[in-house]
Each structure stands twice: as C-alpha cells, then as structure tokens.
Design brief:
CATH superfamily of the largest domain: Pseudouridine synthase
Order of helices and strands: EHHEEEEEEEEEEHEHEEHEEEH
Largest sheet: 9 strands, mixed
Number of helices: 6
Bound molecules: uracil
Number of domains: 2
Shape: elongated
Helix content: 10-25%
CATH architecture of the largest domain: 2-Layer Sandwich
Strand content: 25-35%
Structural class: alpha+beta
Distance between the termini: 23 Å
Number of strands: 17
CATH class of the largest domain: Alpha Beta
Radius of gyration: 22 Å
C-alpha cells in the first residue's frame, strides 16, 4: 500500500507538489473514479493521470562507471551529483549503495531498493570490493602481509579487517577490502607512508564493472547480478 501522491511522484515524473496540483485539478483517476486526495492508500488499482495509465516503475538496480569530478551524493551540495549522469525521470528515486570519493572512478551501484543497498553497505555483510590503486611511492612486498594482518588507521579503535593486496608493478596494486570506512583505501596507504594518486573501483561483491561501459555511462544490472546480493 502506498499513498496516491507518493505513487504519482515516484512513477509519473511529478514532484510531490505537482502531484498534489494534478490531484486537486481532477486529472487523476483510480479505477475510473476521480480522486483529489493524495493520502488515499492504493495497491493494485489502475491509476490514470490525464488519461494515461501510470505503471509502477518497480525496483531499479543500476551500474554506473563514475568519472572523476562527480560526487556520490544525491544532491548537488558538494559538487555535481552522479545522479546527473542518469537522465531518466525516475533518477530521483535512486540512492547510492556505497559511495566513492569525488576523485575516485569506477563502479557505483544505485538502486531504489533500500534492503538491497543495506546488504551491500552494512558492515555485517562483509561485501568484498576491489580497487585498482596508483601510488606515489614504490610499493614493497612486505605490505602484502601488513595489509593481510590489518592496520590501525587514524581515529579508529580497531585495526582494519584482513585485506588482500596484489602488487602489479612498482606503483600499481589491486586491493580487496571487505569494509567501507571513510576514505579507507587512501587512509590505509597513508598509514604506511604512501599516497594514492589514482583510485578506481572495479568490483563490488560478484559484480564487476562492465569493461565496455564508458566513463559516465550506466546500465541496468541483470537479474543474475542484482540477485547475487540477496
Ligand atoms: N577508499 C577511498 O579512500 N576512497 C574511495 O573512493 C573508496 C574507497
């Protein structure tokens, strides 16, 4: 059951205000009867707006290849939100399941399904994420064990969970972590005296960033991809 004004704003590209106006003006029918009150609870009824049926959008599961310079916030307060890259009437319904920093690129998952994003971001779900990291200073092999054992970050009271570091060359590595602390990857390398100069997320759980997806582009996840988190 959902309020009629919310149903209209979620599914007919209206704001709460314009949904109310449409109702007051008698543009909305429910099972053929004009309804002017937004607080009517509806379920499976046929809702029409100005003679057009409004169908529920349903659950949305999106993979975005985030370019640098966009913020993972649903409002443009601290910069341009990644939501601006999803030019769809329903984009306002989305929230971000695991944020990236403004200068980080790569895989961002978005959804309108709160339970699903909770599964990805909740610390108890221990969802693995893979990052490709470029570093200012040369990497040393000892770091593999240091990260596997967990390290203390500034302002934390527990060490990080075991992380798998694979050194690709002197300045590039792949890091798999199962947590999502604030600026975690940058802080882990800072804690060992290095500095991240570029960061790219290539995987969340079993979902890998689609290699054919250009920066700034997005696709819907397949059922197999989104159901892998349930
Ligand atoms: N860790 C960071 O430091 N930044 C990100 O954007 C993601 C993980």
């Amino acid at each position: 059951m959902i309020r009629l004004d919310k149903f209209l704003s979620d599914n007919a590209n209206l704001t709460r205000k314009t949904a109310k106006q449409a109702l007051h003006r008698g543009y909305v029918t429910v099972d053929g009867v004009i309804v002017r009150k937004g607080d009517l609870k509806i379920d499976q009824q046929c809702v029409m707006l100005a003679g057009q049926q409004v169908s529920p959008i349903g659950q949305l599961y999106i993979m975005l290849n985030k370019p640098a310079g966009y913020v993972c916030s649903t409002v443009d307060d601290d910069g341009i939100s990644v939501l601006n890259l999803i030019d769809e009437p329903w984009c306002e319904q989305l929230h971000i399941a695991g944020r990236l920093d403004k200068d980080t690129t790569g895989l961002v998952l978005l959804t309108n399904d709160g339970q699903w994003s909770h599964r990805i971001t909740s610390p108890s779900s221990k969802c693995d994420k893979t990052y490709e990291v470029t570093l200012d200073r040369p990497l040393t092999q000892e770091l593999v064990e240091v990260f596997a054992n967990g390290i203390m970050l500034n302002n934390e009271n527990k060490p990080t969970k075991p992380a798998q570091l694979t050194i690709l060359n002197e300045h590039r590595a792949e890091l798999v972590i199962s947590e999502g602390k604030y600026h975690q990857v940058k802080r882990m390398f800072a804690a060992v005296g290095n500095h991240v100069t570029a960061l790219h997320r290539s995987r969340v759980g079993s979902v890998r960033l689609d290699g054919s997806l250009q920066q700034g582009d997005w696709v819907r996840l397949t059922e197999q991809q989104y159901s892998s988190f349930f």
